[in-house]
């Protein structure tokens, strides 16, 4: 756990969140500022600030985050219609919380390219 990391505090239960699913390795909760009718964040319990800090030792965990996103999309009823997973890395891409998190967005049409 990193000091002063909001998502570490959510993972530890010290800050409340609308949790939809969790495992020993990750926790998924609704985004406080949703950008789509369904907007869920999947975060590892392990503190990794950005994708740039992830190494080969995190490969399986990162893969399981994607599989969690797939399962959550099915539970939320957006799997067939379509959904988007996004992992912003660093401020130039829009990252504002420096604990990696996978956005799962759905429930509306998505434009491409993203802004
Ligand atoms: P990013 O911009 O990729 O770093 O995404 C951070 C997301 O985190 C953003 O969509 C808003 C969300 N967020 C920030 N603070 C909180 C919080 O306290 N609770 C919840 N549930 N989401 C938060």
TrEMBL record:
Find motif (Histidine triad motif) and give its ranges.
99-103
Entry protein name: Histidine triad nucleotide-binding protein
Q: Which Pfam families match?
A: HIT (PF01230)
Any one Gene Ontology molecular-function term assigned to this protein's record: catalytic activity
Q: Which residues form the HIT domain?
A: 6-115
Tell me which domain of life the UniProt entry assigns to the organism this sequence originates from.
Answer: Bacteria
Catalytic residues (UniProt): 101
